[in-house]
Amino acid sequence: MISNAFFHPLSPIPGNKLVASTRLFEALLILSGRVHYCFPLVHKLYGKVVRVGPNIVSVADKDMIREILVTTDYPKTAHYQVFDLGGHENLFSARNKSFYKSRRRLVAPAFGLQYLRSVEPHIHKCIRALLQEIDGILTGSRTTKNKTAKVLPSGQINIYSFMIRLSLDMIGEIAFGQSFETVKDDAHPVPHQLKKTIRQMMQQTFIPWIKYVDPFDSSFLDFGATCVKQRKASDEEGRRADLLQYLIDAQAKEREDSNGGSKHEDTACEEFTDQAIGVETCVFLVAGADTSSIIMTFTLMFLVKHPDKLIKLRSELDFATATNPCGSLPTYEQIRKLPYLTGCINESMRLRPPALSIPRDVDEDVVINNYYFPKGTTLLPYPLHLHLSEEYFPQADKYIPERWIPDESPFPPVQDFTYYPFSAGSRNCIGKNLAMMEMRLVLAALVRTYDMELVPNQREDRVQYLTPSLATGSYIIKMKRRQEE
Ligand code: HEM
């Protein structure tokens, strides 16, 4: 420990010597889910570059984060192995560059704006189910069938619980070809398996042998595999535009190209098998459900606390959808470019980014910004520090969606590389367009349909394991169906 603290090549980097001498503190912090409270403090105390473990350095400097994620594009650390679902390397976990390149090339077009247009009806279907459930509770014609839900006073809705369920259902529809219908009840097994899988991944980060005591539950992957099989067995009528179909078609095209002799250079070592498709769809569930749901919840939380901003957003939405027939949902075409809606979402992701640090591995001795990092150092780009910096975001702790709208912002324009909710560089979030589409459509539908009011004095403390959650599992909003004008 003494040698780690004082004689290690990283010892000139500022930080608490005791913390720097062992991984114990990092493990305790991460397992307690409180890392988001501690890291801002650590950076406040020691500056933008802080040693937080024997070979771990947290980096909150704009130019260094750009260097790590974009310019040099350092590889993901071995810790991403915990995301190898059932031992299968995938888009999220891949550390092998050629595997990764091949997989991203195959999957990325499915997340292109053009293809995503075709999944809009699936998102609308899930939103309609949500509105029906909320209406049922508000009119008293339905009590929630979710076993874990508390009965609330009339007119109050646990919006966090609904956002978690809605996000699962949306990914179910888009990636597996079927909703899990968790907005209605808790019956579907996959969301339960997902919860268990995420807990196991987190534990394995620090206690790798735990997988022998608490082995991976493969029924999660089996479900993905069954969906692939069923879709392939279905006739032309069974086709539907979604991520699953896209991946199946990409596989067919890949095989055709390969048989025709035009094999892609990067696929020489990898075949995109049915199993791989099933694994990737499960990865979308792991990476895409909790992230979108927490941002939708935070956005609604911020809006009910700032009723003036809620009114402003509603006016924007009403204007954009003025010609819509009564009861219809906003279409993506109508809302995708609305500046205030986008500002509200961006501002939530600035203040509460779901991914805290994005670990990268130094694969050869290097000097970045006058700091020497020996091979084997883990760098933790830590975007939240930039997001909360007064230098880049004046009145940084305030929720000000206007800062994202050049004509309305009282501040200088947001600078490049100061905002990283979706990471950056080659490993940025592949689901970014889908996430923005889901969040815009859901928030637009809720804000247009309901009057919403704050229920004061609620606990809002967060727990952050892989993604953040609210410790109480609940955030209550008073909701009332809006009177049609
Ligand atoms: C608000 C919503 C979301 C946020 C803030 C978010 C954020 C991120 C971040 C920060 C990363 C980089 C992680 C790392 O390098 O460790 C990432 C990667 C990824 N995300 Fe998202 N994400 C969101 C939604 C989604 C959705 C909806 C999907 C898919 C349906 C998705 C799929 C992925 C995948 C597959 C990767 C790995 C990409 C790669 O390494 O090439 N994400 N996301």
Strand order of the largest sheet: 1-2-7-4
| Fold-level CATH name of the domain at 78-354 and 422-481 | Cytochrome p450
pLDDT averaged over residues: 91
CATH first level of the domain at 78-354 and 422-481: which class? Answer: Mainly Alpha
Helical segment tally?
19
What structural class do the secondary elements suggest?
alpha+beta
Major sheet size, sense and barrel closure:
4 strands, mixed
Descriptive account of the structure:
- The protein contains 19 helices and eleven strands.
- The model has no long low-confidence stretch (mean pLDDT 91).
- The chain has a domain at 78-354 and 422-481: Cytochrome p450 (Orthogonal Bundle), CATH 1.10.630.10.
- The relative contact order is 0.15.
- The longest helix is centred in the middle third of the chain and has 32 residues, at 274-305.
- The protein has a four-stranded mixed β-sheet with strand order 1-2-7-4, with helices on both faces.
- A hairpin with a 3-residue loop joins strand 9 and strand 10.
- It is α+β, with helices and mostly antiparallel strands and 485 residues long.
- Helix 8 runs parallel beside helix 19 (432-449), helix 9 runs antiparallel to helix 14 and helix 14 packs across helix 17.
- The structure holds protoporphyrin IX containing FE.
Summarize the helices and strands and which ones pair or pack.
Blueprint: H1 2-6, H2 17-21, H3 24-32, H4 35-46, E1 49-53, E2 56-59, H5 62-71, H6 97-107, H7 113-117, H8 120-139, E3 156-158, H9 159-176, H10 189-206, H11 210-213, H12 219-233, H13 243-259, H14 274-305, H15 307-320, H16 332-335, H17 339-351, E4 360-361, E5 366-368, E6 371-373, E7 378-381, H18 383-387, H19 432-449, E8 450-454, E9 462-464, E10 468-470, E11 476-481
Helix pairs in contact: 8-9, 8-19, 9-14, 12-14, 14-17, 14-19
Bound molecules: protoporphyrin IX containing FE.
Protoporphyrin IX containing FE binds next to helix 14 and helix 19.
